Predict the structure.
Amino acid sequence: MADRQFQNDPQTRRSLLLSAGGLAAVPFMAKAAAPAPVAEDIPKAEFVYEAIVTLGPAEEIGETPHGKRVRIPITGGTFKGPRISGTIFPEGMDWQLIRPDGMTELEAAYLMREADGTVIHIRNKGVAGKGYARTSAVFEVPNGPHAWLNEAVFAGTVGPVPEMDTPAVRIRMYKLV
């Protein structure tokens, strides 16, 4: 009789199904929680190079809905590290966005020439302000001895070059391993 009453009472059947469904979700939700990281899962940084990038005069483009846009020409420079070194082409650009919160979004694209002649295309995106300047880089390199740049994740720091008379930044790039 009770079974027949359950089958005929949609409200009771619905309540039971909802509570059963809620209980069934508890183990699923518990499995979805991320485990604590273990030492081998925490990325380490391997130094790749230090670049001194020279800059032309900044040109204010103007206010946009997202903040003030500034264009800074990349006029050249050098880079040196354990596996690569060379020069920076004088034709890149950094399109900065100074946000209303005072932080600056960095978005640079330029070319580097490795000492062996290989041309390396780099796109750097990052954020700077309040004593903080970090970037992440994506490289595009022809197949060959420097193709490893195509196959990894890179992060870097950006800072001033106080020992230079011309405007420049120091970029230290690291490969996450």
User: Anything to note?
Assistant: The helical segments are 2-8, 10-32. The longest strand covers residues 67-80. The chain is about 15% helix and 50% strand.
